[in-house]
Amino acid sequence: VQLQASGGGLVQPGGSLRVSCAASRSTLDRYAIGWFRQAPGKEREETSCISSVDGKTYYVDSVKGRFTISRDNAKNTVYLQMNSLKVEDTAVYSCQVGSLRGQGTQVTVSS
């Protein structure tokens, strides 16, 4: 199984962006999925997570109220809607299922 993130880009502070993570086969519905990010010189951190059973979500404090994680099991895809973006949100974003890490997508917030 491979995970591929897409949808990153350059956005101004205060703007919005939605990144997607697609699985190469039908497996996402059985697992919790997390969105992680890593900025240059910083440790990788989990920004959000969504469970497989009841859709419960978790957000790190720094993105609460601004980011929304969701999943479409029929499309084997998980999304991260990012609003009110800040310069400090700049990072490579990737998804992870268990120990399987996907390819990331660059998000740059800059004026």
Structural account:
By secondary structure, the protein is mainly beta. 0% of the residues lie in helices and 50% in strands. The protein contains no helices and 11 strands. The chain has strands at residues 3-6, 9-11, 17-23, 33-38, 45-50, 57-59, 67-72, 77-82, 91-97, 100-101, 105-109. Strands 2, 4, 5, 6, 9, 10 and 11 form a 7-stranded mixed sheet that branches. The radius of gyration is 13 Å and the shape is globular.
Q: Report the helical percentage.
A: under 10%
Sketch the major β-sheet. Answer: 7 strands, mixed
Tell me how many strands there are. Answer: 11
Into which percentage range does the β-strand content fall?
A: over 45%
Unreliable stretches (pLDDT < 50, length at least 5) are none
Please work out how many helical segments DSSP would assign.
0
User: How much is the radius of gyration in Å?
Assistant: 13 Å
Which keywords apply here?
single chain; 111 residues; mainly beta; 7-stranded mixed sheet; 4-stranded antiparallel sheet; globular
